[in-house]
C-alpha cells in the first residue's frame, strides 16, 4: 500500500504532523502533540480508504454486464428466450457501450425518451427490469465492482388500463382464414388450441405429444410461466386440433414452430385480416372470459389458466355485456 506511520516533530515551539500514503503527503502544525495525533491518524485512515485497491472484477461498460447475464441465463427458464431477444436489441443501442467513467443518467434518460415514442410505458418498464436484474446479479452474485447507481432511473409512467376489447368469433375466423391462405395449416390448429385451452404461447410451444392423453381428453402442462405444472381438460375441438398437430409432427414435440415464428405468423395473419390491434395473447383473455361465461367457477377457471391468485385471474376475465344484460332481464 506504501503507507508510513505519521511522523511528528517540534518546530518553533509547535508540533508539526506529517502523513504519507501511496505517494500522497500532507502536513499541518498544531499547538499540542495530542491535537497533532488526532488529526494525523484520522487523515491516515481516510487516505488509506481512498487508495484501497479493489480486487473485485470491474466491467468496462453496461454491455459487458448484459452479455455476461445473457450467457448465464438458464435455457429452461420460461423467460430466457424473451430476455435474450431484449438484450440483443439493447446491445444495438449506443449507451450500453459507453464506459462507466463517462456514462451518466442523461444517456439513459435520452434513450428512455426515444423508446417511449415507440413502445408503451409498461413494455419499457418490463424491458428495463431485465437491466436491473442483470445489475443485481453482477453486484450481489458475481461480486463485480461497478457504479450501479448510474443505471438507475425512474420507471416510465404507465397509463391506466384501457377497456379490454373481446376477440369476437368473426374476428377469430378472419384471422384463422388468413392463416390458411398463407398455406400454414399447422398455424391454424395452433390458433384453435390457443382459443380452446387458454394456454400461453410459451406453454403451447413446450407441449410434447405425450403430454396429451387423447383417450381421457386432458393435457399435462409441465413447462409453465409460474413454475407450477397443471393438468387441464380439453374440449373436443381442442383435442381434434391437437390430434392433427401430433399426427403431422416429425418429433416428440406436438408441433415444430417456435414462439417467434408463431408471433410473426400471427402478425401477418391479423394484418391480412385487417385486425392490426389484436395480439396472440388476446386469445388467452378470450378463452378465460368464455370459461366464465360457460358457467365455470373461479377456482375451476384458475385450475385451467394457472393463475395463482384471484386478482390476477379477474384481470383476464371480460364478461360479455350483452350476456350480463340478458341475465339481468331474466331476473324475476
First-last Cα distance: 89 Å
At the fourth level of CATH, the homologous superfamily of the largest domain is: Intergrase catalytic core
Strand content: 5-15%
What is the global morphology? elongated
Number of self-contained structural domains:
3
Summing up helix and strand content along with how strands pair, one would put the structural category as: mainly alpha
Mean pLDDT: 85
What is the highest CATH level, the class of the largest domain? Mainly Alpha
The total of beta strands comes to 6
Strand sequence of the main sheet, in spatial order? 1-2-3
Sheet of most strands: 3 strands, antiparallel
Helix content: 40-55%
User: Unreliable runs, pLDDT <50, ≥5 residues?
Assistant: none
Q: Remind me, CATH topology of the largest domain?
A: hpI Integrase, Chain A
The SSE order reads: EEEHHHHHHHHEEEHHHHHH
Radius of gyration: 31 Å
Alpha plus pi helix count: 14
Second-tier CATH architecture of the largest domain: Orthogonal Bundle
Oligomer: single chain
Could you explain how this protein is built, in words?
It is a single chain. By secondary structure, the protein is mostly helical. 50% of the residues lie in helices and 10% in strands. It has helices spanning 33-50, 62-72, 80-90, 105-115, 121-141, 169-181, 185-197, 201-205, 236-248, 259-272, 282-293, 298-305, 310-315, 321-330; strands at residues 3-11, 14-21, 24-30, 212-213, 218-221, 230-233. The longest helix is centred in the middle third of the chain and has 21 residues, at 121-141. The chain starts with a strand and ends with a helix.
